[in-house]
């Protein structure tokens, strides 16, 4: 007998189960085989478990707010993957981040979850920890030309703003302008299921 939780008892986000395969495909396309990948706002830790199981050469550093770290630790124990690193506490608003020299920074469904000032701080932090030439992959919904891309995204935005009026789906064009301030340039805008996108930015070889 063991007291270890089985997979059915682990904290689960349904969205993660739905989007993990398409995200794996995008990561497999862009990330180097032995990449050090820093994840922001890891949530349950399911992406860390799935990606390290399917991309065995990577090292995946999950991070989250303090109160969510235990969920990720449970997934780490269950997954038992060498590349699944112990989660670190990281609020994207912090000035000093606990990891650096990332080949790739990945974040799913965080940009719409937080306020614009938090997104600005997030980009500042990313630009500091990403290696020159490194990649930033941002998965989630975005508006284009000020328009929602689906009724599902209208509903999501309303739900987000009821929860926190400062949160909500961000404009693709605003994200591009912000990224450019930090020498991050759009390399691809990948279509994902359920009207989500993965924005792929590359950090310039020179600059901060
Ligand atoms: C919608 S969830 C997405 C979780 C996970 N990435 C996923 O795709 O399932 C948004 C996550 O952002 C985290 N978060 C919110 N504010 C944050 C902040 N200031 N810094 C870091 N993470 C934050 C929350 O704790 C939450 O887990």
From TrEMBL:
Task: State the organism named in the record.
Answer: Thalassolituus maritimus
The protein depicted here goes by the name Methyltransferase domain-containing protein
Q: Which Pfam families match?
A: DUF938
Which InterPro entries would you find in this protein's record?
Answer: DUF938, SAM-dependent_MTases_sf
Using the record for this protein, list the coiled-coil segments as residue ranges, or answer none. Answer: none
């Amino acid at each position: 007998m063991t007291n270890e939780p089985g997979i059915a008892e682990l904290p689960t986000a349904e969205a993660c189960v739905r989007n993990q395969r398409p995200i794996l495909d995008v990561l497999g396309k862009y990330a180097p085989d032995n990449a050090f990948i820093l994840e922001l706002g890891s949530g349950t830790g399911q992406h860390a478990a799935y990606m390290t199981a399917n991309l065995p050469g990577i090292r995946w550093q999950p991070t989250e707010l303090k109160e969510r770290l235990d969920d990720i630790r449970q997934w780490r124990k269950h997954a038992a993957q060498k590349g699944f690193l112990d989660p670190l506490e990281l609020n994207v608003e912090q000035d000093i981040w606990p990891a650096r020299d990332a080949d790739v920074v990945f974040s799913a469904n965080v940009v719409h979850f937080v306020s614009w000032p938090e997104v600005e701080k997030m980009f500042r932090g990313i630009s500091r920890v990403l290696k020159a030439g490194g990649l930033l992959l941002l998965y989630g919904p975005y508006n284009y030309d000020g328009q929602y891309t689906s009724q599902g995204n209208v509903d999501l935005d309303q739900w987000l703003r009821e929860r926190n009026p400062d949160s909500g789906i961000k404009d693709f064009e605003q994200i591009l302008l912000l990224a450019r301030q930090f020498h991050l340039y759009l390399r691809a805008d990948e279509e994902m299921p359920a009207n989500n996108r993965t924005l792929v930015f590359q950090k310039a070889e020179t600059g901060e």
